Model the fold of this input.
Amino acid sequence: MLFELDDNFDDTGSGLPVVLVHGHPFDRSMWRPQVEHFSRSHRVIAPDLRGYGANTPASDKTTLDVFAKDIADLMDHLEIDLIVLGGLSMGGQIVMEFARQFPERLLALLLADTFPGAETPVGRVARNDMADRLLREGMGPYAEEVLWKMVAPGNPEAAEHVLRMMKSAPHQGAAAALRGRAERRDYTELLRDISVPTLIAVGSDDEYTPVAEAERMHSLIPGSTLAVIEGAAHMPNLERPAEFNKAFQRLLNTVGA
Done:
């Protein structure tokens, strides 16, 4: 089993279980501000995904349904039936896939800096080309190129953390995830059927998933709330943790109530 050892996931605190899914090409440490803050009152679980962090095994291609099943397996391993599930970027797409496969296991959702659409033909080629590049060159050149899109200017601490995660990501796992995301389904119609409390969060300066995309998701999910984190790009949970945590706390309060 992928999560037999405690060194590939954090499980901290007690109370309402909250599972946080990292994006590409990161690891569970991207959720450190949330683990530290919310574990005071909740049980916060943050795993390294298949092929990332301490979970280095990966095939040539890892699709979103495999990642989602891994989260369900972790829940079974920890004997947890119901969770609040959150994810950022690729992690958000994994959350949507989990909602497709296991809607009965959800109490609430956090969808941060993500989007529901299927990949375009051009995008499929680009993701597979990038996967080939990562296998040739490793993560360093890619990480340096995209850092400016990940973190808004003026936040060197967050930028250093993000750059470190990207450079240390196993290139085989990152490439496998890119090939899997190239084949993802369209989750747009699924959003209309989500019936649990949902927070959509996005950085005001995010170029990967602009505010307009978050607003569209907000319009599709009944009763959802939208939080635009000012002064943040693609990683608002790290760039502006206080603001991000405040919005997330409001969602958790609805579940607790």
Remarks:
- The chain has one domain: 6-256.
